Structures are given as structure tokens and as C-alpha cells.
């Protein structure tokens, strides 16, 4: 089955879909995006993603390209036309097409809306069972990381650095030596006494939708959580570490740079959270596109 993309009101063959050469997302990275997990052909945590999308647009003084209910209908149709049962939906909104100039175009210029969907994109069983490695890199991103902007060049460079080192992810580190987050994931550790630690929400990190789900699941399981910064040294000395994201779920980290975490194997609390999140996905897979 050929893949289908949605671009500004049209469903097009994926290979033929495109935007104008003067789209501001292309020329200025002037746009935002969301990645939504699909399970059983239905969305996971769609309400959270829609809320974050609307917030990102507000922060950039952009408007929604269509009413939320209509957007959900388009999302559902993109997933259906691509026959995605387990995978992701990608959604991007830019400030639209206008002659190249740094100030915003007139308010009459319509936003550009693009959606695609594809199957797969979940951790392999080996990654879950054996864990993954991360490397640490200086955080060189702009100061508004709470906005899910398409301006991702520092993330791309850091992710490639991780790949070159044989690692799955790069943990970005601020000037004071504290871990902010991964290039596309939130960062967590588990202390010796079993406390989960993750950086609090502010302009330094993105409010991960899976991060929020993990916090809820941990509280329901009676686990202690501290939202505070942690250093690279604390992470390397931790009992466990893991990452969370739409595509990674709650994936164990067993190596940071050249240091093994504890015995170098996924820990019991991370495994518990993985199982809890898998159960959450199974429940959320019944979520309705329109009424959620």
C-alpha cells in the first residue's frame, strides 16, 4: 500500500507531497510539531499532545490551522489511509508561505499543516532486555526548549554524536553540569533508595507527554518521585537510569559515556515502569480520536 501524506487540505502520495520553497518552516524553522504514538490504529495520550500543540502555537504567536475537532478527524484519516496499526503520526504546523523576511507575515497568511503516518518505530526487544547507552554533550539549544519547535539542528548534531559513539541517545548537559534532557527524550535516574528523579518543567526542557504518563504511573504504584536537576556524576552513580518518550516508552539506560550503571543491566524499577507503561498503552489504545 502506498503511503499518503496530508498537506493543506489535500491527501497526496507520500513521494509527491511537498510545501512551497518559501514556507517559513523550511526557511526559518518557524513552526512546531507533535509525534503521537498509534496503538491498534488509535492514538495514545492524544489529549496531552493536542494541549501541548496549542500551547506551542500560542508561545510562537501562531494560530491553529483548523479547529481541534477537525484536526482530529484529519489525523484519523491519515492513520487510516496509511493502514497504521502500531506506529506514529507526525504533525507539523508552520507560519505558512510568504516572501522571505524575518518579521511575521500578515495575519491573512494561512498556516501550513502537514501530517504523515508510518508503522513501527518502537524499541526492539533487545533494547528493552539489555538496555541502551547514552553519551553526554553540552546543551547548545535555544532558551525556549519548552516549545516543541521544528528548530532541531543541535538535537540532530547531538544524536549523530551518539550514533557515532555506538550509543542510542545523547543527554544534553547545561553549563552547571546538570542533565537537561535527551535529544528526543526526557532523562531519568533512580537513586540508591529507589527514588525516581527527573528534571522539573521550565524553559530548559520539553514537557514530555510520556514523561507525564510515567509520573502518573509511578505515583499510582507508590513510587517516590523527585523533580529536580541531577548531575552527570549522580547519574553515573545511580541505581538505575532510563529515558522516556513517545517512541521509546520507558527505556532502560545501562551505560553513560564509558560508565556502566550499577551492574550494567536494566533495573527492577525501570522494568516495572516499562510494564506499567505497556499496560497504559493497552488501555489508551481504546482512546477515541474525536471524544478524547
UniProtKB/TrEMBL annotation:
Keyword Amino-acid biosynthesis: yes
Primary role: Acts on leucine, isoleucine and valine.
Enzyme class: transferase
Keyword line: Amino-acid biosynthesis, Branched-chain amino acid biosynthesis, Pyridoxal phosphate
Species, as recorded: Rhodospira trueperi
Database matches in PANTHER family: AMINO-ACID AMINOTRANSFERASE, AMINODEOXYCHORISMATE LYASE
GO BP: any one term: amino acid biosynthetic process
InterPro entries recorded: Aminotrans_IV, Aminotransferase-like, BCAT-like_C, BCAT-like_N, Class-IV_PLP-Dep_Aminotrnsfr
Name of the protein in its database record: Probable branched-chain-amino-acid aminotransferase
Amino acid at each position: 500500500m502506498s503511503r499518503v501524506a496530508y498537506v493543506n487540505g489535500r491527501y497526496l502520495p507520500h513521494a509527491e507531497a511537498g510545501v512551497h520553497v518559501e514556507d517559513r518552516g523550511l526557511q526559518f524553522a518557524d513552526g512546531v510539531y507533535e509525534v503521537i504514538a498509534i496503538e491498534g490504529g488509535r492514538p495514545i495520550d492524544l489529549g496531552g499532545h493536542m494541549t501541548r500543540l496549542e500551547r506551542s502555537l500560542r508561545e510562537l504567536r501562531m494560530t491553529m490551522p483548523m479547529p481541534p475537532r477537525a484536526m482530529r478527524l484529519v489525523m484519523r484519516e491519515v492513520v487510516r489511509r496509511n493502514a497504521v496499526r502500531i506506529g506514529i503520526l507526525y504533525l507539523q504546523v508552520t507560519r505558512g508561505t510568504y516572501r522571505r523576511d524575518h518579521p511575521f507575515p500578515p495575519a491573512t497568511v494561512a498556516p501550513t499543516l502537514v501530517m504523515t503516518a508510518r508503522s513501527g518505530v518502537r524499541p526492539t526487544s533487545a533494547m528493552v532486555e539489555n538496555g541502551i547507552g547514552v553519551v553526554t554533550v553540552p546543551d547548545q539549544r535555544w532558551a525556549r526548549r519548552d516549545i516543541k519547535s521544528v528548530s532541531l539542528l543541535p538535537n540532530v548534531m547531538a544524536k549523530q554524536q551518539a550514533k557515532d559513539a555506538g550509543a542510542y541517545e545523547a543527554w544534553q548537559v547545561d553549563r552547571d553540569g546538570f542533565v537537561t534532557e535527551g535529544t528526543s527524550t526526557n532523562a531519568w535516574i533512580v537513586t540508591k533508595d529507589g527514588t525516581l528523579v527527573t528534571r522539573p518543567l521550565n524553559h530548559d526542557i520539553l514537557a514530555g507527554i510520556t514523561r507525564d504518563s510515567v509520573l502518573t504511573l509511578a505515583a499510582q504504584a507508590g513510587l517516590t518521585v523527585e523533580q529536580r536537576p541531577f548531575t552527570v556524576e549522580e547519574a553515573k552513580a545511580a541505581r538505575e537510569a532510563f529515558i522516556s518518550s513517545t517512541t521509546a516508552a520507558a527505556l532502560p539506560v545501562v551505560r553513560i559515556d564509558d560508565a556502566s550503571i550499577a551492574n550494567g543491566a536494566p533495573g527492577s524499577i525501570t522494568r516495572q515502569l516499562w510494564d506499567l507503561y505497556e499496560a497504559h498503552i493497552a488501555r489508551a489504545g481504546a482512546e477515541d480520536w474525536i471524544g478524547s
